[in-house]
Amino acid sequence: MADQVQEILDVPREFLRDGIQFINKSQKPDRREFIKISQAVGVGFLIMGAVGYVVKLIHIPLNNVLVGGA
Question: What is the pTM of this model?
């Protein structure tokens, strides 16, 4: 019984130990890399917003024609 409990408790301990090792080995991005990533994310947001706007712009009149909106 004690062995089963020990096995169950070993899983979170091992996960935590692996996570701490990963954090310690990883490094923060430098300023240039951070700006580059931020710009890429910003451009992605703008593109997705533009696509959503265009789809909505087309959908509203198309929906009015198909449904015969009031």
Answer: 0.57
In which residue are the tokens 């430098």 written?
Answer: 30
Q: Which amino acid is at 66?
A: L
Q: In the block, which residue shows the tokens 């910003």?
A: 42
- pLDDT of 17 over the 90 cut: yes
Residue located via tokens 């198309």: 62
Tokens 């990963």 correspond to 22
> In whole angstroms, what is the distance from residue 15 CA to residue 57 CA?
48
Rg (CA), the chain: 26
pLDDT for 20-31, tens place per residue?
Answer: 999 999 998 999
Alpha-carbon gap, residue 51 to 36, rounded angstroms:
23
